[in-house]
Structures are given as C-alpha cells and as structure tokens.
Give the backbone structure.
Amino acid sequence: MDYIEIEALLMRTDCQYTPAEVQGISCGMLAVDLNSPMILWIKHIFEDYDEQNVLHQDKKHELKVFWNDSRTQMLDGNLSFALLLPDDEESLEDRVDAMQEWAEGFLMGIALAGVQDMDQLPTNSKELIDDFLSISKEKQLDMSNDEESEEAYLQIVEYLRMGTILIMDECQPEE
C-alpha cells in the first residue's frame, strides 16, 4: 500500500496519526521485537478500537496487510525496506514533515515494544535513537538551496532507513 492509500484508510477511520507515523510506530516496535503483537499497534493508533465492532474488524484486516508488509521488508536480506513517505511530487516541506513524523513514530514504537530505558539498548542503537530523536525535533530544514536541501533530505531518509535495519540487527541478531 502506498502513502495515499494508507492516508485514505486512516482518514476513513478517524485515526489521529499520519501514514508516516503509523509506519514509524510499527517499525519501532518490530525493530526491537519482531514478535510484537500487532493488536498493540492497532489499539495504539486507534484509541477507540473495539474487536467486536465489524467496521473495526475491517480496518484491522487492512492494517494487518500493512503490518506484515513492513515486517517482511525489514527482514528482507536485499534491503528492500523503505520508509512510507509522500512521493517526490509533493513539496519538500511536506516530505520533511512526514520524515520527522516517521522518526517520532519510530520512537513511540520502541516505547510500545517495552523499551523504557534506552540504556537497555546496545551502544550503536542508543546512538541511532539519539539521532532519530534529533531528526524528529528539527522543525526546519534549510531550504534556501533547492538542490542541497533535496540532497540533505534524501540522505536523512537513507540514514533513518539503514538505522532502522541496524537497530533491528543489534536488538535481534538471531533474526
């Protein structure tokens, strides 16, 4: 599912999160525990989730596909994992905002997976988490030079992508 499809699904269900945040949360959870319960993620992104509600069961089915796709990509030895961000046709400002939301979601996901003390994480993962935190807090990317700003954005996205895989590898080396 692409960004627009997920955005439409989330809008239909009155979700408070963006597609980037939703994927970030799932990736944070999966990076520290590939066996994280999907239902915990669903209940977090949909506060009013009720398993007895037929409409809620329908969104659970659609989101299960999304969750499994994220998990499969993260485990792919060919590094096919990609952050769910708006297409290049969107403004750089919108893409940067989504990238920051993704990083923020990732940090939420780590907490949801049970990491309460970052000192529990391996050294490299702690450093990456600190960087993810800095990225999530930056509110402006210097966009005075379009070409340089675009390149900086692409480098940060790649850093988040590879950092996610490295965190997963450190936290779950047997996988």
Summary: The chain has seven helices and no strands.
